[in-house]
Amino acid sequence: MNTYLKVGDVASLLEVTYSTISKYYALFEKNNYRFKRNNQGNLIFSDNDVELFRKLIQLKNTPDFTVEKAVVHLVEESMVDTIDLTRHIQNMTIKHAELEQLIQYQAQIIKMQQKQQHRIEELYKIHEKSVREIEELINQKKLFNQP
């Protein structure tokens, strides 16, 4: 189960100030990233959100990134991940539909095989009856042809 943390909890966990986390989430939301809110409307952060803040802290400390650039980069990365996940789900949905069709086709084949098996059994019974009748005829002929 996913646990949710408040702003102060995240700040303590990441060893930054409350205002730093406030600044970070405001920048993310400015770039169309949305965080969850509880029933009272207070922000709450998932484990994934905390990891996002961790990545932000790492990126902003590299020479090529400001906090703003790091946020934009992470939001774009998140969108790419979402797009990839959406594509994967679409592919899985297509595969699921193909499997459903295959299962239906297999069910039809099984039904036809059962009908064929039943017909084979009927033909075998007819064959057995014919063999018995032939044997009876042979026996009758032997009786008539005895000296």
Written overview of the protein:
- This protein has 147 residues and is mainly α.
- The protein has one domain: Orthogonal Bundle (Multidrug-efflux Transporter Regulator, Chain: A, Domain 2).
- Helices cover 77% and strands 3% of the residues.
- It contains four helices and two strands, in the order ααββαα.
- It has helices at residues 7-14, 18-30, 47-60, 67-144; strands spanning 36-37, 43-44.
- A two-stranded antiparallel sheet has the order 1-2.
- A hairpin with a 5-residue loop joins strand 1 and strand 2.
- The longest helix is centred in the last third of the chain and has 78 residues, at 67-144.
Second-tier CATH architecture: Orthogonal Bundle
Name the helix and strand elements from N-terminus to C-terminus, one letter apiece: HHEEHH
Mean pLDDT: 90
With strands numbered from the N-terminus, the spatial order across the biggest sheet is 1-2
Quick recap of the structure?
The protein has helices at 7-14, 18-30, 47-60, 67-144, and strands at 36-37, 43-44. With 147 residues, the protein is mostly helical. The chain has a two-stranded antiparallel ribbon.
